[in-house]
Amino acid sequence: MPEYRVVDAFTDRPLAGNPAAVLVLDDAYPDAWAQGVAAEFNLSETAFARPVDDPGADYELRWFTPTVEIDLCGHATLATAHALTERGEPGPFRFTTRSGVLTVTREDGLLWMDFPARPPKPVEAPEGLAEALGARPRWVGLGGAEDLLVELADEDAVRGLAPDTAAVAALPFQLVIVTARARQGPDFVSRVFAPAVGVPEDPVTGRAHTVLTPFWADRLGRAELTAHQASARGGDLLLKDRGGRVLIGGRAVTVATGTLHL
User: InterPro entries this protein is in (predicted)?
Assistant: First the structure.
């Protein structure tokens, strides 16, 4: 019977950051089974890793929300690397994924993910965006094909958002990322809404920071940044802009382990 861990990512304490379920499996598995397991856990993502015979990678890694498989997930990648470390594997970890090979290394007590950067390109605000968010955008851009970045006037506007979830879900994007410069502490804050893929608000989103990092690196003129995702649970990230790549650093803590009776 497969074992699992529930790991809080982008935090150094339990009951904060973003929880992900992680299963490290020995063999291939049916897609429908994986989707059912993810629905059962009902977390923003459940990660499935299994060893592969590949000179360029150590594990296949896939991510499922409660309703769909997705192409890229940061916090569940961090959680998987943390789980493998607890199993006694030293890393670095090379994962073959829908987004190519992603590497996670440990340095100075942090796990660092090496992800492709997705600098946002400015676009016209989609019809209904301001009404869906309940706030007027200062700037709007598209990171990749499916993630919308929205800059608001200030940190208070980001923290105070109470969006219309159904209206956000009707927009043609997987993620709606809302951000502003922070008043003090981190360089910027953000929140991420993904009701179109079954996640009304994601607590901490590594994927979003592949868009946020180049955006704020350009705005602030610095390659190394700190970020806080201002969800109810909250989470902190260290970021390094490397041109075509983004390094995302964070901590993680295991909060539950068990066995699936499936």
Answer: Phenazine_PhzF-like
